[in-house]
């Protein structure tokens, strides 16, 4: 076992060892363990999109029948209030779970709370598929109940996964590691489409049925239910939802075996010896405990979240991370409003009345799979490749700007693109998704995990993430309501509004400093507060013009970048 001297600077030896560590197996294991949580999160949140119209055909088959003009019927369309509940309830649960688990992640420990979120996700994914009752009200009611608690568990995974990965990482590749965890969301979306496509294809093979139009024409009373393919279709959506439990359960053992992060053990629990011991086991180096130095370190950074001191040091950063995530998620969760035009234009889906229930699920799942694979997935991994070269700040600015441009073009040229330029419409749509993920959808997850002091890092990430989910709820209930009728003028208006929203995100990004290449303690100012000299430690190369008189408040992006090139 190699020896390690005490840290020469203000930071603790165990933290310096983490910051300078080469990429090792424990980094990869942490990415997989945290990443599988995000895989499960994405699968559970997005698989409902593939089966929501099936729920409408099964439980509300006649609600959108137009008996005066059968061609105007809209099979599979859930009543507005039911649709909002089915789609939105998990988002509300996610928002609440982020705040609750984020807070307890700082109070009880990252690892201790981490296991609870996983068990809750797995249990509620299975329970969602077992939604019971003999009436539509009972089935949908129990489904919404369990999906709320599913979202609650998913919400906890956001701040905990990001915080754990940031505190395990070295400073050279920390951005890529955190972004890689988040990139598993893209894999989860792909598998949500793929699994739905496979399961619906199997049930479709063994449950042939007429199309909606054929069913109402062959029935004396125009009954559409033969096209809904019950009970096979009823089993199908339940199986898809329950499959979401298994990736989470597969990593439960390894999640419980992970040691608590050294930063939590040392800086919050105050146990330098245990922190050094835990990291010695995973890094195979000898680390000095430095208990006396830790006591000075903790005393110098002992100010709470809701204090004037936190507001002075980090208030603008929290406003920046919260507003940019809020604005991003309004646009990101609204992007599916153009799917009803994009998918038919690309010949991926047919009119609802021309297919039966399981064929519709198969087509929607295939379209979702292809869009995720070709548009969504690449952006995540381009971010992983470039985030520690370009920086979080530039990627976020570029992403917001390009999303704004493409949504403005789609809004202004909506009718022309829809009717005459299908390929160009699909290209703009895919590029919007690409720059969302090679852009703010990734960086808004990474930045809150790096900017804030250890003792409030999970809580601040939770506040930022919950702000994002508030934006998603605005998209689900506000923007979607605006475009519910599918009229061109409403879709144009929505896309132009979303373009403006993205541009606001571009400008709010200026509140967020660059974090690339610096230790977490340097970014948050924690190590400078605990300086060994009478006036603290002089600013390092990452602090730029931040001096002792400013108490090492993290500098803005432009200041930091200027200092790096000075």
TrEMBL record:
Biased composition (Polar residues) is annotated at 555-566
- Stretch list, region Disordered: 523-566
**Where in this chain does the record put each Major facilitator superfamily (MFS) profile domain?**
30-517
Query: Which Gene Ontology cellular component terms are annotated?
Result: membrane
Q: Does the keyword Transferase apply?
A: no
GO-annotated molecular function: phosphate transmembrane transporter activity; symporter activity
Q: Which GO terms describe its biological process?
A: phosphate ion transport
Q: Which InterPro entries match?
A: MFS_dom (IPR020846), MFS_sugar_transport-like (IPR005828), MFS_trans_sf (IPR036259), Phos_permease (IPR004738)
TM segment ranges: 30-60, 80-101, 113-132, 138-156, 177-204, 235-254, 367-387, 393-414, 421-438, 494-512
Which SUPFAM superfamilies does this UniProt record tie to the protein?
MFS general substrate transporter
For this UniProt record, the keywords arranged alphabetically read as follows: Membrane, Phosphate transport, Symport, Transmembrane, Transmembrane helix, Transport
Q: Membrane topology type, per the record? A: Multi-pass membrane protein
What are the boundaries of the signal sequence? Answer: none
Provide the protein name: H(+)/Pi cotransporter
Which species does this protein come from? Digitaria exilis
